[in-house]
Amino acid sequence: MMIDALAKASAAVVGIKVTVAEDARSAETLGQRRSGSGVLIGQDGLILTIGYLMLEAEQVEIFTQDNKTLPARAVAYDQATGFGLLRPLLPLRGMSGVTLGNSADLKPGELLMAVTGPQADDDGDVHMTWLISKRAFSGYWEYHIETALFTSPPIVASGGNHSGAPLFNQKGELMGIGSLLVSDVTGENRHLPGNMFVPVDLLRPILAELQQSGTSLKSHRPWLGLISNDQDGRIQIMRVNKDSPAQLAGLQTGDVVLAVDDTKVTTLEEFYKKLWDRSAPDAEIKLTVLHGADIKTIVFKAQDRMLTLKKPSGI
């Protein structure tokens, strides 16, 4: 029974190839050509993947396990959760959508299955992995979710490709979508490498909204354009995105963020939550930063990142 369920789940996985315009903002950091995986979640051809694959997508192709290549269109990109949706322009014959599971029921130590989809020169693969931990995750790119799934051993695929790989429980139910390779999945500095998956539980409340509007309301929030990390109670800016609100305000690599609106912040989670705690995405932001040996206060307007991105046809 378990083997049949996992085989059925694996058969719903496709490969994805995306090309974005050369002048797309995301091309500099994510590349102009991207590849990964997705999984069929609806009989109408709706495919779930990780959002950064679909970010500013201009041309999308999917690869099926019976060696077909089909054109597809982007349906949604959700900055708040990190999910992406797409749909082929031609029917996916002979394929069935998977069941969305409940990752809240997962316990550390459970054996799970991650699947990478085929590509033009790769058949994809099945990877057995263990759930190591479930905890909040803050990404360096102004991203935070309250629960993420961390597994090990890491997915080893052609080119190290883990993007959008679906994660299944032993019933063949979808638990999450692959986002990152991480150096430590324990959260306790044990240096155990593995993967971070975005739990599918975050999709249910917004699925209809994503299909209708191409994103969720929560994605329309203040964005500064910073790449940052936190360590030993310090939030250090690692990179400032070109033409972003942060660059226009004069923030620089190496600056340390001390406070938002005069409230001290020591972790990325605190930083983001304070930043997003306002009604308008283009609200005024007051940052206290350490620049070299000087403490500076900078007041500037944030931006709705969704308005800065090139939208593919369909979104």
Question: Which CATH architecture of the largest domain?
Answer: Beta Barrel
Helix proportion of residues, in percent? 10-25%
Largest beta sheet, briefly? 6 strands, antiparallel, barrel
Q: Say what the CATH topology of the largest domain is.
A: Thrombin, subunit H
Low-confidence stretches: none
Please list the strands of the largest sheet in the order they lie side by side: 1-2-3-6-5-4
Q: Please report the first level of CATH classification, the CATH class of the largest domain.
A: Mainly Beta
Overall, the morphology is globular
Helical segment count: 6
Describe the structure concisely for a colleague:
The chain is mainly beta and 315 residues long.
